[in-house]
Specification:
By secondary structure, the chain is an alpha/beta fold. It contains 10 helices and 8 strands. Strands 1, 2, 3, 4, 5, 6, 7 and 8 form an 8-stranded mixed sheet that branches. The structure holds S-adenosylmethionine.
């Protein structure tokens, strides 16, 4: 997938996907597993996943056998790939923007979206969270998995510096919020927070890579990064930003209920 993108310009998550990385969210597989457990997805659920990307969480959701599943991603190649992951006719993939999914209101008991809000503007973040609220039935569960800045009273200068460095190196407009700001935004859009989980931002650390991908796959990814022109420089740049600002950033998941 994504062979035609230019390595020097492509968004960081697609670069890592092209190098063979399957787990592309900040808190890794560990945080995703905790989210799946907290959501307690079962055979009665209708699940909507925002931006499933290459589908690693989608497959964990399928293993829980929900009644319905709909994955919505704006990348057509991703959607075509996702469709090849299941032949269950109650599981669908839609090539659309999640700010306006086109799905009927109240169609879901669970909405999940990972590594998709951080890269949006404030206005878009709110649109997406409001869309989750529109889709959910009352009492429905919503989970996000994003980057949070810390502490809650982080200086504006540092916040801007981190946002600028992330955008520069990942090539997407990364605008993480503090935990307090994420919860305020969810409350404003109609959600009550029931759980907050965190994990260090170790997406590109070797130990996390091995835990996320397995030893053999992690070795293959490292080899591809080292031997693909321009890839090493780009990944090193991303890793440097994560290391430099490690104390100011964490992976966060918030589980909320539609009031
Ligand atoms: C970093 S990946 C995250 C993928 C997946 N959730 C994961 O954690 O591995 C970003 C994905 O979000 C999708 N995406 C970003 N903004 C979107 C939007 N507004 N509507 C639909 N999909 C979007 C991209 O196409 C891409 O597949």
């Amino acid at each position: 997938m994504f062979e035609h993108y230019d390595i020097q310009k492509m968004p960081g998550h697609w670069l890592l996907a092209r190098m063979g990385k399957r787990v592309l969210r900040p808190g890794g597989r560990e945080l995703t597993m905790k989210i799946i457990d907290a959501l307690d997805i079962n055979a009665d659920d209708s699940v909507v996943e925002f931006a499933p990307g290459i589908g690693s969480t989608a497959q964990l959701i399928f293993a829980r056998k929900p009644q319905h599943y709909t994955g919505i991603d704006q990348n057509e190649e991703a959607v075509n790939h996702l469709a090849s992951l299941t032949n269950n006719h109650r599981y669908n993939f839609i090539n659309k923007n999640i700010t306006n999914s086109g799905l009927p209101g109240l169609c879901a008991s669970v909405v999940l979206g990972e590594a998709v809000l951080t890269m949006q503007t404030e206005e878009r973040k709110e649109q997406i969270i409001s869309e989750a609220c529109r889709l959910l039935q009352r009492g429905g569960r919503y989970a996000i998995h994003e980057i949070a800045l810390r502490p809650d009273d982080i200086q504006n200068g540092m916040k801007n510096e981190i946002q600028q460095k992330l955008s520069e190196k990942i090539h997407v407009n990364a605008r993480p919020l503090t935990t307090h700001e994420w919860t305020l935004m969810l409350n404003k859009c109609g959600f009550r927070i029931i759980k907050i989980l965190t994990n260090p931002m170790h997406l590109l650390k070797l130990s996390r890579m091995i835990r996320d991908e397995g030893f053999m796959r992690a070795a293959g990814i490292a080899f591809r990064i080292a031997t693909t022109p321009h890839a090493f420089k780009r990944v090193k740049g991303m890793r440097n930003v994560f290391d430099t600002y490690e104390h100011y950033m964490t992976a966060i998941s918030i589980i909320a209920i539609k009031e």
